[in-house]
Amino acid sequence: MRRGPGSLYRRWTSIRYLATRDRRDLLGFLRDREVGLGLAARLDLLRRFTAITNQVRGYHTLGEMLAVSRAILVRRRPVVLEAGCGHGSSTAKLSLAVRAAGGRLIVCDSFRGLPPNCERHQHMDGRPIEFRAGAFRATLPQVRRTVERLGAAEVCEFHKGWFADTLPALEVGALDVVVLDVDLVESTRVCLRQLVPRLAPGGILFTLDGQLRATHDLLGSAGFWRDEVGVAPPRIEGLGAAKLLVVRG
Fold it and tell me: Could you give the C-alpha distances from 235 to 25, 63, 134, 184, 188, in angstroms and in order?
């Protein structure tokens, strides 16, 4: 690789530490011929992802963000919806991928943290998990500033409120990519009921909440899909094993 300022070598060395931690995902993204970006643009995207990770607390891995980014970048002008943005780390990253694909990003969050709840869960490894009300809270101005500073705020629109209130009122048309990071199983249930029927043909939905056994139980329930969502049980990648679950429309 050429080693001058702004060279591919410089871009690679700025993210090289990730090559050991997420080697397979990173190299797969760089080699994927269907992704509509050149090598220099992909390295730049990875460099910016790394900068965001170093500055804003997030609850996802590089591999998860690259899987979602690939789904965005293989489409032209995709409509992407993120439910649950936390402090804006994932939002900033997704906005960069969406801008590169010429699309728009719809961001839905309470911006008050998690709602009051009585849910008690087990991690997939058996550890107990509880989610207190207000956890993961960041205000809308805080998230907007994060995306303006590190991402592509011009492709984003923000919707504040509980999912049960905001999602039914959205007028967005068909959705190409949906990303859920909502923690509570009741929130997952609401999002799936509202958003799966809106997936475009060939659309894809990711949930980053597969650390919970209850998420796998819900997505693995044929009755839930038929009775509550109103669709035949879809094919779900990672069911029973992975943190990142993938539902294909």
Answer: 22, 21, 33, 22, 17
